[in-house]
Amino acid sequence: MRSPVTGIVALLAALLVVIVAYMSLFTVQQTEQTIVLQFGKPVDVVTDPGLHFKAPWNSVINIDKRILDLENPSQEVIASDQKRLVVDAFARYRIKDALRFYQSVGSIQAANLQLTSLLNAALRRVLGEVNFITVVRDDREKLMGRIREQLDKEADGYGIEVVDVRIRRADLPEQNSQAVYQRMQTERQREAAEFRAQGGQKAQEIRSKADREATVIIAEANSTAEQTRGVGDAERNRLFAEAYGKDADFFAFYRSMTAYENGLKANDTRFLLRPDSDFFRYFGNPSGKTSAGAETPAKP
To answer: Whole-structure pTM over 0.85, yes or no?
Structure first.
């Protein structure tokens, strides 16, 4: 029969085995790579996911092997044409050599600080060699490729691979932008005023030409009307003369009726004439003869 002491010792031994086994096992996730440390010094790098063994006194450090983001604060860069630019860029990177990364920078936070400094330097070098238009319009894709190459070359010593570098925004500083916008607005206003002046001049030319043509047309029309009126008056006089020669009494009667029509208009029938004047001779005698027996036609 076992003594109680033997059972306690066996239990402690089993517990010690479990503790040693627990301290000798570690797990590597698919998104991680692990460095095994012995008394603070790296002795192994494990990149395969799964369950692994180590000495119980060793420790492990997990390092992310996914693509990581590097958000860079906006930086002011001077282009080759001495124009100041505010550049907002970011980068994507991954840790390709965990041991070198651990020995050089030690952590992702420290790596971000180091890469930010390197990225700013690459931005100033590359963008400082080209002018403003090239950065904002012409060759931005090529410039981003050059910046990535330079940053990747410098980050290689830290066990880091730069996957991509992108310029999110490259623009003039706010005060410069306002000056440019005002200059553009002034230029557009000047062009608009010039277009309006040209349009006004063209409109004046068209109006002058139209007025001149209208004056000519009216003058020609008046001339034609006067000629036609003259021909009509001549024809009328001819007809009157012919009618007078054929029937003098009828012609005198017609002239008197015309004089009555023109003289006795509505709201104006007052005359300062003698009742026995020749104007009223057809009122007293339908034949138009005066008391003396003479036939004198009434004047219109």
So the answer is: no
